[in-house]
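Ticket #4471: complex job returned nothing on first submit. Input attached below:
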Amino acid sequence: MRYLAHTEADRRAMLKEIGAPSIESLFRDVPEAAQLRAPLDLPDRMTELEVDRAISALAAKNRSAATMACFLGAGAYRHHVPAAVDHLIQRGEFLTSYTPYQPEIAQGTLQSLFEFQTQVALLTEMEVANAGMYDGSTACVEAVMMANRLTRRQRVVVSGGLHPHYRETIETYGRFGGFTVVSADLDVEGRENLADLIDADTSCVVVQNPSFFGQLRDHQTLGAAARAAGALLVCVVTEAVSLGLVTPPGAMGADIVACEGQSLGNALGFGGPYVGLFATREKFLRQMPGRLVGETVDVENRRGWVLTLSTREQHIRREKATSNICTSSGLCALAFTIHLALLGEVGLARLAEINHALAVGLADRLAAVPGVEVLNNTFFNEFTVRLPLPAAPVVEALAERGILAGVPVSRLYPNRPDLAGLVVVAATETNTKAEMDHYAAALAEVL
Amino acid sequence: MDRSQGRAARPGAGATTEPGGASHRGLQLEEPLLFEQDSPGRSGVDFPAAPTAADRLGGLRRKSGVGLPGLSEPQVIRHFTRLSQKNYAIDAGLYPLGSCTMKHNPRLNEKLARLPGFAELHPLQPMSTVQGALALMDELARWLKTLTGMPAVALSPAAGAHGELCGLVAIRAALEDRGESRKRVLVPESAHGTNPATAAACGFSVESIPADARGRVDLGALRAMLGPDVAALMLTNPNTCGLFENEVVEIAKAVHDAGAFFYCDGANFNAIVGRVRPADFGIDAMHINLHKTFSTPHGGGGPGSGPVVLSAALAAFAPLPYVVHGPDGFRLVEMAEGTAKSFGRLKGFHGQMGMFVRALAYMMSHGRDGLHQAAGDAVLNANYLLARLKGHLTPAFEGPCMHEALFDDRFLKDTGVSTLDFAKAMIDYGYHPMTMYFPLVVHGALLMEPTESENRDSLDRFIAAMRELAARARAGDAAFFHEAPALAPRRRLDETRAARQPVLRWRPPTARRVAE
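Support reply: We reran it on our side without changes. The output follows.
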């Protein structure tokens, strides 16, 4: 077997050194009842070529977004990732190292995470950021639990514009973690008034900007209302590129920010792995979940970085930890950092402008199709349209014409027949004008 | 033993002082932060001009700049290449971190995960367009169920600790379904910190079970703690002392007789994969760290993936989504259907697909016979270390061990050298330290997991280095240990300062002066 290191002669010599008759004898502590009675019903080893063929055949059964015109968003976005990103994250020193617990020989990972934390703080306009979470949805629920700890309250108000998967994740954790989730009704047009739902038991209000339906809203007033009631404002962003153009959560008075970082550096990948961005105010630092990298010096007074404030974490605090998270999303955070390093200030601003301008162009094209209505008056690179027919079959029909036309809201809200005509549509820099013309023309044909 | 790593430590050598105050030492290059290399207006990505149109931002245009530095592509490549060279990695050498399973990461798996047919799939594409991805998830599920002997699996958990949460929430849902509100979870003293942290997050109180003199769960103590209010036992098997819980069948029976569930932490599954099915020793749930046993790269701290296998009693409560096969092919069930009692969703989308591809490629490459051999070699290698270090370091328990060898710090008694000092000295000998001070049941623990990837020569060199270090400690060379590492990119760092005056982000120098 190509990954195994021993010849049979090695094994015999080593067993002799150990004083054991066989490898099987080393398993003598396994009780009789737990020993394998019949061979496992699995195939034997395969060559690299055979595995390559078998798994490539499965990949070939998919129609990738790269082979179609892709207008899908709803929490995961197709962006162009510069070739340098994947090259760098595949360096074995990054790819095959562990969590940087030995800082003397992990400065590469530590410094890049310190840069990641700085980038996230800058993008969100928050004071501090951690070294990353699993993804946006789990960052969001960790933000909620942090707000519960900070306020010692157990009632969470969730916007009707929050991504439904995020809301469902909060509900799961709430049911078993002992907090109450008050979910506002779906808010397609960004008109809800969440301040009315805040009471003296409320720990936080969770909003998303742009919302799941693409609407932009200024949450400053809501944040003030929350704070007046002793609650916190949690802001979620699922499209990190929007932060290059749109007023960031920190400028709206957010107390905790949870973002999906996939858009920068990370492929769509059928939903994962992604990386969650998590930022907050400095005064809340000690209730933060996840790893933190801090600057310090070594015994020769040279600048260096270490994991710090780990007395919050499970390996030290056990049942009193701020989170149970251990393995996080280090390599995805690195990809994010490299992509953003390549973009820089002007690159990110330009990328965000292009995304917005293309989405404006697409919205206008679709609005011109008879029977189609664009429901947003504001948006970044994603908006919601109402079709005169149930959306799911229309989306299927357009897929046959090579267009991934958007996410039918019915896929996420199957019990809302009133929303069956809605599709959430995104445009990014990967979309061409020709694709957008084709989409509008094909939609007119299908309807 | 040559401990020069090819170059001498000569403080002060090198002409250039980089931001941060350090100088290059030969080819050990200092690298400033990205933010210290800014040239405003520069970018490493080219774009066409943005089409002009009136914006639809509703007045919410960002008012101030972000503050990101501008670098060209070559600068960025050089920056991260230099940073990478400051890391130790499995690709570079033996990485004996006990309980972490730092084994070889095959590059075929990287190639396959990047096929556009997987990497360029949107999670919410019509299901008719992702049949191959769903088939792959189904096939991975089949392998995991067969290898563990369990009837069901939940693929969505993002990592081991997330899998623990999945298992405990399923247990809690099953208890509620029975009309019971059991509140206690029992966890051995030797458990990973994630176990008590997860139990607490699920609203359980956590109680610690003592270990016996053999490094196993004290069955008598466990029996005395079990009662009608115990929800679950969380037990790692093989345990974190590197030992198989030889009374595990009795443990499972005692737990089940008390009406509780047996959650197994599968962090150490690599020792037994293909040889022992956890179902056969009575578990109800177990997470599998795909980044350990099935070799998806650790990536400097993730991403991982933590599928959870479940017994028939828990399967109905498994999270959404899951894959089913019907007349029209594969389908993801994303909402609770009919009689399903799913506890709901644990995260966005469907799980760590990129890790699923890698793990399945690993399993298919090994096959049934190769996994059996890999587990055997992992155990052989750990026992070889134990046997050949026995007279030099002090084993914590009688062997044989499973896939990791545990030592305590008795061999360092009266030397003035601590486990930490010993670990840091290993760096100067060219090795990443083992896991230390864990498990907590052993004083000054040194937990070594060589994995099946290491050949005999590699183990012999490591053994020689460990023996030499132990001899040096006994010979009274404590100063060498206290000053180690001397040859790494950094020497010991001031962790107290980092925690007392946290600097968690870069700020421009002027802002720094104001803050001070």
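Chain B touches chain A through 210 residues (CB under 8 Å). Closing as resolved unless it happens again.
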